[in-house]
Q: What sequence folds into this?
């Protein structure tokens, strides 16, 4: 009962926080000027008509047959029109600044771009978690010995280097010098084919190397502390070997801290993939988000901001709830 009340309270706070953040984003983006660039193959007048139909602008000013000016609709009226289109028609808007996505529904483009982003982050987690946990366990069991020192040096290097630097190193060594992988991701939609998977690996490695260092650091620190507790000595005196005591007791108690850190690291990787997607030409939502900011494509910006914001807020709730499942002694929301 305590957990149910706690979860409902957190969901309510999440909705409130999400609404406030999106209101701030909407207000700030609408304070910027609306720029419809006249590009080859794009009817600028049609863009203005669409913006007028959506309730963003009014009173178009013509010079000949071209629209050269307009009046801005008040921000609160724009917000009402925006929310009405979403909740009544499932319409999140259309693109109008980026020529590649002009006049296309932003939700359709988002769903089209989502699989590559999800895949490179899932692959990064699947590769990074076992390697990071394994290195952390080894470092804790061999504390202050040469394996621990070597692992610590690697951890410090990987944590110190930004993912963009790691990406450049991977591109130079594995893509250019050794020619093991293509420099950019293969085009197409067959995401589970071997050529497509192989072309994703450089971006995956660039993302997961930093995560491996983070997992190893968390695991080493927590497991080293747990191994020195008195109940570990009691377990050994009862006849358990060091390996049995470690895996039955120490690792289980360490996971109270380690498992939530894995979820937090996944969110951090998802945010970090914004730059990596641009570097390796991954046609995902990260690159689309950066383009929407560059070209001030408001509807794309709002949808993608909401996506990343919602992922972060949901991860926070999942992390908190996970404590209660990992350790039954923890009762979230109990007094």
A:
């Amino acid at each position: 009962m305590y957990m149910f009340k706690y979860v409902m309270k957190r969901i309510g706070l999440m909705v409130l926080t999400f609404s406030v953040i999106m209101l701030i984003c909407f207000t700030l983006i609408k304070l910027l000027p609306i720029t419809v660039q006249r590009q080859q193959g794009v009817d600028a007048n049609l863009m203005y008509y669409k913006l007028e139909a959506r309730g963003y602008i009014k009173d178009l000013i013509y010079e000949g047959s071209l629209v050269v000016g307009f009046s801005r609709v008040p921000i609160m009226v724009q917000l009402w029109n925006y929310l009405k289109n979403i909740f009544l028609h499932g319409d999140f808007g259309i693109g109008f600044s980026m020529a590649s996505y002009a006049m296309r529904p932003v939700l359709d483009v988002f769903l089209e771009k989502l699989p590559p982003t999800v895949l490179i982050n899932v692959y990064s987690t699947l590769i990074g978690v076992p390697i990071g946990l394994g290195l952390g366990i080894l470092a804790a069991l061999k504390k202050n010995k040469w394996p621990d020192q070597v692992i610590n040096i690697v951890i410090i290097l990987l944590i110190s280097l930004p993912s963009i630097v790691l990406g450049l190193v991977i591109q130079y060594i594995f893509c250019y010098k050794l020619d093991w992988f293509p420099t950019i991701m293969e085009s197409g939609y067959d995401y589970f084919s071997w050529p497509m998977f192989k072309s994703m690996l450089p971006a995956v490695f660039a993302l997961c190397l930093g995560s491996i260092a983070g997992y190893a650091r968390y695991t080493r620190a927590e497991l080293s502390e747990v191994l020195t507790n008195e109940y570990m000595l009691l377990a050994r005196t009862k006849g358990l070997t060091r390996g049995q005591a470690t895996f039955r007791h120490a690792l289980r108690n360490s996971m109270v801290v380690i498992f939530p850190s894995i979820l937090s690291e996944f969110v951090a990787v998802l945010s970090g993939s914004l730059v990596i997607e641009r570097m390796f030409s991954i046609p995902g939502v990260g690159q689309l988000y950066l383009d929407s900011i560059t070209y001030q494509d408001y509807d794309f910006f709002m949808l993608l901001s909401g996506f990343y914001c919602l992922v972060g807020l949901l991860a926070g709730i999942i992390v908190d709830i996970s404590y209660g499942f990992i350790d039954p002694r923890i009762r979230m929301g109990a007094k």
